[in-house]
Amino acid sequence: MSRSGYVGVTLAVAVAWLIGVADARAEEEAEEPFDQPSVLTSFGLTDLNRKAIGEAGIRWRAIYTGDLLTNLSGGISRGTTYNSRLEFGVQADLEKLTGWSGALFNVSAFAITGPGLSTVHLGNLLTVSNIEATPTVRLFELWIEQKIGTFASLRIGQLAADSEFITSEYAGVFINGTFGWPGIAGINLPSGGPAYPLATPGARIELDFGGGTKFRAAIFNGDPSVPGAIDPQRANRYGTNFRLQDPPLLIAELEHAYKLGAAALPGMIKVGAWYHTGEFADQRFDAIGLSLANPVSSGVPGLWRGDWGPYAVIDQMLMRLSPDGKRNIGGFARVSVSPDAQNLADFYFDTGINVKGLFASRPDDVFGIAFAYAGISNRVRGLDSDIRFFTTPGYPIRDYEAVLEITYRAEIVPGWTVQPDFQYIFHPGGNVPNPNDPAMRRVVKNAAVIGVRSTMQF
User: Alpha-carbon distance 87 to 457, whole Å?
Assistant: First the structure.
């Protein structure tokens, strides 16, 4: 059986088991970022009339995140970087403000500064920081959502898929970007897909069937930047391209919240898939079937119509450490596959465990350990073998990239957290040649990264 076949069987068994044992009743949703405490009030300063403004129909947030990261060994080079992101967001209840029943307006933007460690020193696929991006001031999301009765909502505007699709609550504590928008989607989709730092025009509908079951589907412009751009982020530097002419990306997801067993431990399972309608280059062969590494090849890859990626996500509280469950141990796992011929990565898996309130005296701190794996497709491996045969004896053959992350997010005061972090990156870039080796035989070595994140919410 193929690797994709094993994944399909595993997902089917997991879904059947969870549905069979679950009490189909959802736990309350996590507190929204707009409702988080402000560091200003923690220091006895004004809350900037947040409550009064909120009662009038406007909620806002400002979050500053800074990452100081050091590559201790391996990668392309050793070094330290500091990059930061200031996020500002506003939500307006249009019913309170204008009488437009059931309508919500949302806008968010970023001010990003500093170089990223992955870009400068690692050259890896699974970016070590989920705030790393080209320094700029960028519009992110801009949309209006309309409630339809009590069971549905429609959202239209500039959207980011990673705000609602393929998400994991327990993965949110980790710094590596792959634990947000999973690496396989960011690697395979044009310009990384509609995810941080690039949103794109689209529409999303969500249906709430009750009993913890929801369905959501969306259509996005298929490239949030400019097709073929060498640097997609610079090609849409300010987030204002608003492209509508590219082949669309479709994504759909079914989620089911439940309580598991006699202990009624809350959990969530999601199954979904994305499909892109555009053309994708073959990773090994040209239009007449010659290897792209063959000296007589045209060098122009063959084209495939469409690309796709099914996935599944499981979030599960494993144990309550306090009667109310606010201190707990939880875990997550996600898996996804994509076709071999037109993709760099054809298999992805991540998993991790969180302990919230490891110490009773610090109930809001979170300790986490997680692992992610992105498998390089056989088509790409075949191309590397061809390069070794035709032009470069000893050329490395790509296989996978993986990351292990260990982190501890400590609350200094409500609204301010400091987070020491360690990551070990296996096979950066997927076992690619080191750009510092002219012979292209030495690979980029495994990298050990340490750092600290500081986050303040105003």
Answer: 9
Question: pTM of the full predicted structure?
Answer: 0.90
Place of tokens 């202990």: 263
d(CA 187, CA 345): 7
Q: And the tokens for 373?
A: 């794996």
* 3-class DSSP string for 242-297: CCCCCCCEEEEEEEEEEEECCCCEEEEEEEEEEEEEEEEEEEEEECCCCECCCCCC
Residue ranges per structural domain of the chain: 3-457
The CATH classification number of 3-457 equals: 2.40.160.180
Count of residues for the chain? 458
pLDDT tens digits, 233-274 = 999 999 999 999 999 999 999 999 999 999 999 999 999 999
Q: How far apart are CA 263 and CA 265, in angstroms?
A: 5
* Exposure b/e, 214-246, CB count within 10 A at least 16 = b: bbbbbbbbbbbbbbeeeebbebbbebebeeeeb
- Identify any residues that bridge with 208 across adjacent strands, giving them in sequence order: 214
Residue 449 tokens, joined: 């990264």
CB 112 within 8 A of CB 84: yes
